[in-house]
Amino acid sequence: MPRSLPYADMDKMLSLSKRRGFIFQSSEIYGGLGSTYDYGPLGVELKRNVKEAWWRSVVRQRDDVVGLDSAILMHPKIWEASGHVENFSDPLVECRSCNRRFRSDQLETEKCPDCGGELTEPRRFNLMFHTFMGPVEDSSHEIFLRPETAQGIFVNFKNVLDSTRKKLPFGVAQIGKAFRNEITPGNFTFRTREFEQMEIEFFVKPGTDEEWLQKWVQARFDWYVSLGIRRDNLRLRRHEGDELAHYAKDTYDIEYRFPWGWGELEGIADRTDFDLGRHAEASGEDLTYFDEETKQRYLPYVIEPSGGVDRATLAFWLDSFDEEPDGDATRTVLHLHRLLAPVTVAVLPLSRNEKLTPTAKAVYDLLRKHLNTQYDDAQSIGRRYRRQDEIGTPYCVTVDFDSIDDHQVTVRDRDSMHQDRVAIADLVDMLQDKVEHGW
Ligand code: ATP
């Protein structure tokens, strides 16, 4: 359904988020902890669905990608070899008057944006969180919270290769938490210090990397569109030469038009053999691949599609928001894709009535075995539809007095508000079919 621009009003979304339980400020009863967030009962379902959709698309539905779940805590030498100890930093400046700190590359003026004071010269600030392993707190026990999931994949390259006997090209995918001590977090869950990533390292024969980069850029762009983000709100941006990371030969960012401007959802980089080369050198392990066709050994090149779970969730959620005229009133609706919506189907008895309840509960018990289902019998049916629209529930099943005798219920579609009468016996198949394939 075409929807009008511009997009979600952030104030309305924040109020909806808190009121309905999508995302809460973390540690709220203690005054909150800067830029950390907790996903509420609806938010956690939405985020799980985003991860599930990604995993299905890049692991389950492909023959050439396998999954991994590596530890957050890793050997500190990994971060030296990867270049993070040396290079994973942002330029930090401090105001000499109010002592606030900023990322100098994000400032538009040479003065403090808060008080107009003089700023110090920029110095490099490493973004990795560090802590100590075990009971002794000295530098020999210092370890890092991973700032990306990617390195867990590189250091398992040989394990995966040996255990799966995969041939190039093949990839390894992983979803997990990452931590960065960002100097200026902000814009809700867009930039936080604790977040989740979904990353793929796709290993290819050198020389085929440029072709694979293009394939992955297209596949990942299409994924966002296939799950409902309007194409007009997405763009691809290729990194300029001076913007490229030290390990990258070429990079594209998929950006979303957030209410505050364009922002990165995912970067797809050609990292060549940089990572495997560094880890081979630092660990002394042979990380080469034996190519049976050419009878040669070489280090594979890698294409890395690296996305953020929280940013993708935020973009799907914001993009789905709409306010539509509905008679004299306005209907607030999240047009979330049916695979992403936190609740898939709501069972709504026409009224709270002892005759209706047993049939309605039986329908609820039937559906909840297969689909994420909510039961709601409080207040008028109109208000209950609105409540479900507001959280993006794609289907509502209404049980009325005729249902008791004719064993049929009414299925209402969130977007078209079209209603169909369906036999209870056909309901599970019919709804599962809709969820998989749409109307
Ligand atoms: P940015 O330029 O916005 O700081 P980045 O280029 O450093 O991002 P990458 O290192 O490429 O980000 O990380 C891959 C993905 O992880 C990003 O595309 C983003 O979706 C997510 N991500 C990175 N940093 C954060 C953060 N602080 N909060 C939430 N998500 C993040």
Topology at a glance:
Layout: H1 10-20, E1 23-25, E2 37-39, H2 41-60, E3 65-67, H3 76-81, H4 84-87, E4 89-94, E5 101-103, E6 123-126, E7 130-132, E8 142-144, H5 150-154, H6 157-164, E9 170-179, E10 194-204, H7 209-226, E11 234-238, E12 250-258, E13 261-272, H8 274-283, E14 289-291, E15 296-298, E16 301-308, H9 309-320, E17 321-326, E18 329-334, E19 345-349, H10 356-368, E20 373-375, H11 381-391, E21 395-399, H12 401-406, E22 408-413, E23 419-423, H13 424-437
Parallel strand pairs: 3-9, 19-20, 19-21
Antiparallel strand pairs: 1-2, 4-5, 4-6, 7-8, 9-10, 10-16, 11-12, 12-13, 13-16, 14-15, 17-18, 21-22, 22-23
Helix pairs in contact: 2-9
Bound molecules: adenosine-5'-triphosphate.
